[in-house]
């Protein structure tokens, strides 16, 4: 999958970040790795190299008892041989398929059992990344796992593992490229930008033919060339003792043999001298314009200036193209502009999704005119300042979490050869002038140097199908690179664990009834806040679906004191993010900002909450946006499956039975008066909570809340909240939603479930983790790792204040739809029949319980956790009591939870796919099938 580099979020202008590559002070003296020294923000780190060339960067940070392990292998698609597109990404998958001392399927189970979070891998054009975060007492375990991946994968990988991961990756391609709107157009863009032989030409995911053609000998050759200690870097970020970390890194990685220096990749950046225009058809409803230029490589002259250009043109609601195309002309559904920086040359992209009826030629002409104006006339100082403020906040947010902090340090190390390059990086942005921004646009964004791609509705053209061969009958293991040692076969012991605790939160109430929840977190100068209300979808009148969502969406589009544009500019000047939306049972207004801007940021939050304008012209614009969004939902199989699942659970005559956006008929019937009336009735302090986490003390928060929200009064004659009506679920137990030509089947398996506060909540969580909640769950392992049917499939319980449900969601290969459902049914039956064994119970219980601190490692995560607790009507203390409750779950209580809450007789299956391909399979597996079109209409 194509992952954007984050050059555009690494610029911090006005606050210089210095990385100090010196030995670390004692742990008692250092709380966080990100500190302020002499008025400058600084990231403390230490870099060293083992004798075999293995690079190690230590980032000591004691804010939480966690350690992030971030291993970069300096190889990606830029290193693939001809005819092997997708190989680097396939290799990423194989790295998790087992090694000499970690049997196949056990790597992720070890991480789960230790309470790991953020465990995954990723591939971009320049590198492959393997990462997870563990509790700090599992430092040795993390290094044991990482060293075995890097040093002993070849000892274990075999033809069976290769064939399975080829299936998985091909399913990923179907899901992320072929079955995703605009996915085939993105591939076509790179083919037009880069010539044959350039390593960036093919999509990172690769083609079916190339993925399937990879042989075990290719895997071994690639590993011997690139997966050697002298071509890898490990960043440890978190709560550890540097001396202990150095000793353990040397023990685990020091004996690995260095390889020959990998071959240099030297490719000239392509030059486009005449505009290349192309049209791609896809199964979409909204056309899309993409303009792309070759631009300077990361940190080269012009790279930073084009980052600023991207913000000025398309960096959010205050940007020029958003204001012109979305707000004023109302021709566009969305605008995105990015300088996507890479090592062999970057790409500058403008992407505009059109509104229904808008012509891409007209949109392109307006974009061209705006680019020409920027090239001829420098932007204002205010525009450049807004770009600086945005990237400052985004950079600090990347430093908030040890996992992303580790990745940031590794990025600088590879892309600039210096993990402390942040100092020089920021200097690039600090000196940028409006004149330089204009000059960069004139120099790089010429019409004769670009690709113009129009994606329009039509047939999705895919390459000829490549059959999936039968799985190999015999597996022959290979010969490893590194000598074995008996001690490597033993799982390392953990050190003493620190007490398991969740962030503290204090509560107080204003005189008007507003509840305030406060979780102080000094350190990084960041604050997150959420004003959450009982004004979600469940409050919709039955005949007005979409009203709650429409009301929330209007809040940030103008107040009685600021127009929508003025509000966007005020937020951008602060570098703050403000967003409002309505969910199933609540509406919320979320704010993320710098500590220094918390006062002005909270003033803007209060403004949109208390003084929304509900302007008639803006209302009509939002109506058009929402109608277009409904058409976009019809393009996406997984979204369709979820929407139909809601109808199956609750029925059409229920507030939760339709999509949150509503329906075309309901949106057309709404008016400003109804939206204003909903706001007046449901946006009230006695049904609201303000949840705040970050670098702010209680006294300051109290003063802000009293000043800004103390005068907010509830309606004098408002009625109590009406209870939800009884669900009227579909009678059909199997529903097929026809999506012609779908490359996969999007599945949803749903049934009623328990509400919040169920006495067996802990047992439900542990049971679901084993069934479908974890990557290592029974269902995902069977369908992905054993059968190769899917890229991933997961289950979960929605336990709300007034509603509860169980759902299992994922996409499978179309030709195995029926077989996948049968496997799911077998796993559900087995979960309900026999109690878990001790090893499985211990693993999944720890996975849920020990991972809790890692799920509250940012201000936004803390806010979300406690805000959700308030929404579902449960006491705050219940969340902090959860670890002890999870620890007491037994095999018997988990079995009882499965028998009570996962009942196959009550489950409804929704399958979105091509009727000709999946209809016969569904009838064979499930019997009678109700067939619907994408609008929910019965098919003949």
TrEMBL record:
Entry superkingdom: Bacteria
Chain ranges of the Peptidase M16 N-terminal domain: 56-194, 522-644
Keyword Signal: yes
Cross-referenced Pfam families: Peptidase_M16, Peptidase_M16_C
Keywords assigned: Signal
Peptidase M16 C-terminal domain segment(s): 214-390, 670-847
Signal sequence bounds: 1-28
Family: Belongs to the peptidase M16 family.
Protein name, as recorded: Pitrilysin family protein
């Amino acid at each position: 999958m194509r992952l954007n580099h984050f050059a555009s979020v690494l610029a911090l202008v006005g606050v210089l970040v210095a990385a100090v590559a010196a030995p670390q002070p004692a742990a008692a003296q250092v709380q966080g790795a990100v500190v302020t020294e002499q008025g400058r923000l600084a990231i403390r780190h230490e870099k060293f190299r083992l004798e075999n060339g293995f690079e190690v960067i230590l980032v000591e940070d004691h804010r939480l008892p966690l350690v992030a392990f971030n291993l970069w292998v300096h190889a990606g698609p830029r290193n693939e041989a001809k005819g092997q597109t997708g190989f680097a990404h396939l290799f990423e998958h194989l790295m998790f398929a087992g090694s000499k001392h970690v049997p196949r399927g056990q790597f992720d189970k070890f991480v789960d059992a230790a309470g790991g979070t953020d465990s995954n891998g990723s591939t971009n054009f320049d590198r492959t990344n393997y990462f997870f975060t563990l509790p700090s007492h599992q430092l040795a375990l993390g290094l044991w796992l990482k060293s075995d991946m890097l040093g002993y994968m070849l000892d274990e990988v075999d033809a069976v593992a290769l064939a399975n991961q080829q299936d998985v990756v091909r399913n990923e391609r179907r899901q992320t490229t072929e079955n995703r709107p605009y996915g085939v157009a993105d591939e076509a863009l790179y083919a037009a930008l880069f010539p044959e032989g350039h390593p960036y030409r093919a999509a990172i995911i690769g083609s079916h033919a190339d993925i399937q053609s990879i042989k075990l000998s290719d895997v071994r050759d690639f590993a011997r060339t690139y997966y050697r200690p002298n071509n890898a870097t490990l960043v440890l970020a978190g709560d550890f003792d540097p001396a202990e970390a150095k000793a353990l890194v040397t023990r685990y990685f020091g004996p690995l043999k260095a390889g020959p220096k990998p071959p240099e990749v030297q490719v000239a950046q392509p030059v486009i001298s005449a505009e290349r225009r192309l049209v791609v058809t896809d199964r979409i409803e909204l056309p899309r314009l993409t303009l792309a230029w070759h631009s300077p490589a990361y940190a080269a002259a012009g790279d930073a200036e084009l980052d600023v250009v991207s913000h000025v043109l398309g960096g959010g609601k205050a940007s020029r193209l958003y204001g012109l195309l979305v707000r004023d002309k109302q021709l566009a559904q969305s605008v995105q502009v990015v300088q996507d920086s890479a090592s062999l040359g970057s790409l500058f992209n403008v992407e505009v999704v059109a509104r229904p009826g808008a012509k891409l030629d007209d949109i392109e002409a307006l974009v061209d005119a705006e680019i020409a104006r920027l090239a001829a006339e420098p932007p204002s100082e205010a525009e450049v300042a807004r770009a600086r403020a945005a990237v400052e906040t985004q950079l600090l947010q990347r430093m908030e979490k040890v996992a992303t902090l580790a990745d940031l340090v590794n990025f600088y190390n590879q892309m600039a050869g210096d993990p402390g390059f942040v100092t020089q990086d920021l200097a690039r942005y600090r000196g940028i002038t409006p004149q330089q921004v204009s000059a960069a646009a004139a120099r790089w964004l010429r019409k004769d140097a670009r690709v113009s791609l129009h994606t329009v509705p039509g047939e999705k053209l895919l390459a000829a199908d490549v059959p999936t061969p039968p799985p190999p009958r015999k597996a022959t293991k290979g010969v490893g690179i590194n000598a074995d040692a008996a001690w490597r076969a033993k799982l390392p012991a953990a050190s003493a664990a620190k007490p398991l605790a969740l962030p503290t939160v204090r509560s107080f109430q204003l005189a008007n009834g507003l509840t305030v929840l406060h979780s102080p977190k000094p350190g990084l100068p960041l604050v997150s806040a959420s004003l959450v209300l009982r004004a979600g979808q469940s409050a919709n009148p039955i005949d007005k679906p979409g009203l709650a969502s429409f009301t929330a969406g209007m809040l940030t589009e103008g107040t009685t004191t600021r127009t929508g544009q003025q509000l966007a500019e005020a937020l951008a000047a602060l570098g703050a993010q403000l967003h409002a939306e309505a969910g199933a049972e609540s509406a919320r207004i979320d704010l993320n900002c710098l500590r220094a801007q918390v006062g002005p940021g909270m003033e803007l939050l209060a403004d949109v909450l208390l003084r929304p304008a509900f302007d008639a012209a803006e209302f009509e614009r939002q109506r058009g946006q929402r109608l277009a969004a409904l058409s976009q939902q019809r393009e996406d199989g997984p979204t369709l499956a979820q929407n139909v699942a809601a109808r199956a659970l609750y029925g059409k005559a229920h507030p939760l039975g339709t999509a949150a956006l509503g329906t075309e008929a309901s949106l057309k019937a709404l008016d400003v008066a109804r939206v204003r009336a909903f706001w007046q009735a449901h946006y009230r302090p006695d049904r609201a909570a303000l949840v705040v986490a970050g670098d702010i003390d209680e006294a300051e928060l109290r003063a802000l809340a009293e000043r800004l929200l103390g005068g907010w009064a509830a309606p004098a004659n408002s009625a109590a909240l009406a209870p939800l009506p009884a669900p009227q679920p579909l009678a059909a137990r199997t529903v097929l939603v026809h999506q012609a030509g779908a490359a996969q089947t999007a599945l949803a398996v749903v049934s009623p479930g328990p509400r919040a506060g169920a006495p067996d909540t802990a047992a439900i969580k542990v049971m679901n983790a084993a069934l479908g909640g974890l990557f290592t769950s029974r269902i995902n392992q069977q369908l992905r790792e054993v059968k190769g049917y899917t890229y991933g499939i997961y289950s979960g319980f929605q336990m709300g204040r007034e509603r509860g449900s169980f759902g299992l969601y994922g996409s499978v290969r179309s030709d195995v739809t029926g077989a996948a459902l049968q496997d799911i049914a077998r796993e559900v039956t087995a979960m309900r029949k026999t109690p878990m064994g001790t090893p499985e119970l211990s693993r999944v219980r720890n996975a849920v319980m020990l991972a809790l601190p890692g799920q509250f490692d940012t201000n936004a995560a803390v806010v979300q956790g406690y805000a959700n607790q308030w929404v579902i009507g449960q006491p705050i203390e219940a969340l902090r009591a959860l670890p002890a409750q999870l620890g007491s779950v037994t095999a018997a209580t988990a079995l009882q939870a499965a028998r009570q809450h996962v009942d196959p007789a009550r489950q409804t299956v929704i399958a979105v796919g091509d009727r000709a391909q999946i209809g016969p399979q569904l009838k064979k597996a499930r019997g009678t099938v109700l067939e619907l079109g994408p609008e929910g209409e019965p098919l003949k």
